[in-house]
Amino acid sequence: MKGLWFTERQNPGLEISCLTKKTLHWEKTDYQELAVIDTETFGRMLLLDGVIQTTIEDEFVYHEMISMVALNTHPNPEKVLVIGGGDGGTIREIAKHPKVKEAVLVEIDGQVVETAKKYLPEISVGLDNPKVRVIIDDGIKHVQDNENTYDVIIVDSTDPVGPAVGLFSGEFYRQIHKALTPDGIFVAQTESPFFNKDLIKGIQKDLADIFAINKLILANVPTYPGGLWTFSLGSKKYDPEKVERESIAELDTKYYSRDVHFSALVLPPFVKELMP
Amino acid sequence: MKGLWFTERQNPGLEISCLTKKTLHWEKTDYQELAVIDTETFGRMLLLDGVIQTTIEDEFVYHEMISMVALNTHPNPEKVLVIGGGDGGTIREIAKHPKVKEAVLVEIDGQVVETAKKYLPEISVGLDNPKVRVIIDDGIKHVQDNENTYDVIIVDSTDPVGPAVGLFSGEFYRQIHKALTPDGIFVAQTESPFFNKDLIKGIQKDLADIFAINKLILANVPTYPGGLWTFSLGSKKYDPEKVERESIAELDTKYYSRDVHFSALVLPPFVKELMP
């Protein structure tokens, strides 16, 4: 088919290409190349350094699954921190939860927030929720400066290259552990079980060393390499597999549900192998 | 990256491209264009009419999930039929199951079988199993000619275009119902819940009309559009969700397990909507 195609190199031997209708925004920020394009298949799409971050069509999967499992595992997630996630999708889901009183978003690149507000209103709507406070700063610094503060901390980052590398280190996870309350829960997006096995192994080993409980959450994000994606969870006290089904808030979600809460924690043998 | 890239148009606005090392085979058969290429990311890959059918790296997901849920739902799956699946991967999984006595493969295109034997031995190995009988014929005709014969029938077909269209019709499902024993189970690959919603809705409605029980099985196949894939199941008597966990055969599988048997039947709300 004719037309302008956006192509992402997902790994050295794999590319995904999307037919585009329009380039809505492009800029070089202080941190990364930021773009929003409109595509035939997935609608408007946020790109950072040429990598698909989220799209109008499939964003619900990622944003629900990075937040809802932890929020429904903690009995009282009043204060929640999101590091990264400047598009607002994750904080939108968090703000939905009736038990959340304050949701803080710390995004290093203010241009991501501004651009999402302008071109991705369905996703950035959460940023205007009265429960939400947006801070443009370095998430690592914020975590260091706020000990014993948050019930849930979610790291909604880009891939572990460039600005995000520090967000995948054991040292950072130790700081997260300190920033959590004594029964706090941590979740981060941790890439593909098909293409990033060593990364996931290392992260889960770190979490097993630092937290009482470490789990892997699976969900399918069509625009990510291979589709199958992982979120790593570290918990000081509460086990997401031992949640009382009836205690899970029934919210307006399209991927997450009371049943999916548990099924997303079931690992096929080839994924289970990655666990310590 | 330089090199020769194979590109599949997965839908009008979406393409996947794989860096190739070598084209091992290419021919125009009586039914379709048949090729085997060696790729950097997924190893050797079987293509029919330019569409990825299976690859060495990820074939285990599809072949285990199209067969194991049904085989472990039926208490005594002695006689099993596979329509299509000429690569041998599905029959390889079926032959693994201790309760299976005879597995019949009916593939319309003998060249698929011959080519898989030559270039995809890890997948086609099942074709040489003593339990397996290979028939090169029209699967629809075979089903019409064999009433009340099979405990499990699996339709391992290409997409619903060209030669496979008839394999997605309610009329064919009625013939399958007749070819099954009185407590038989039917499974077919039924495309993507992101990109083929109407197809899946129609199939599930047909199965609900014809069978006592209809279910959707989910699995993640990285080389298929969007990753998330469905298998539709119709059963005369046995409900895959009511299987006794301990009765599930523990075989050498990489995606399927006793726990995955049940988690694969849990549908996110946006997929549940497709069910009648």
UniProtKB/TrEMBL annotation, chains A, B:
Domain of life: Bacteria
Coiled-coil segments on the chain, per record: none
PROSITE patterns: PABS_1, PABS_2
Signal sequence, renumbered to the chain: none
Residues reported to bind S-methyl-5'-thioadenosine: Q32, E107, D138, G139, P163
GO CC annotation: cytosol
Transferase found in the keyword field: yes
One Pfam family from the record: Spermine_synth
Residues binding spermidine: H63, D87, D156, S157, T158, D159
Pathway(s) this gene product operates in, as recorded in its UniProt entry: Amine and polyamine biosynthesis; spermidine biosynthesis; spermidine from putrescine: step 1/1
UniProt-listed Gene3D superfamilies: Spermidine synthase, tetramerisation domain, Vaccinia Virus protein VP39
Domain PABS: 3-236
Active site residues according to the UniProt entry: D156 (proton acceptor)
Keywords in alphabetical order: Polyamine biosynthesis, Spermidine biosynthesis, Transferase
InterPro entries in UniProt: PABS, PABS_CS, SAM-dependent_MTases_sf, Spermi_synthase, Spermidine_synt_N, Spermidine_synt_N_sf
EC number(s) per entry: 2.5.1.16
MF (Gene Ontology): spermidine synthase activity
Reaction(s) catalysed (UniProt annotation): S-adenosyl 3-(methylsulfanyl)propylamine + putrescine = S-methyl-5'-thioadenosine + spermidine + H(+)
Transferase keyword on record: yes
Any GO BP: spermidine biosynthetic process
Subunit structure: Homodimer or homotetramer.
Biological role: Catalyzes the irreversible transfer of a propylamine group from the amino donor S-adenosylmethioninamine (decarboxy-AdoMet) to putrescine (1,4-diaminobutane) to yield spermidine.
Family per similarity comment: Belongs to the spermidine/spermine synthase family.
Protein name: Polyamine aminopropyltransferase
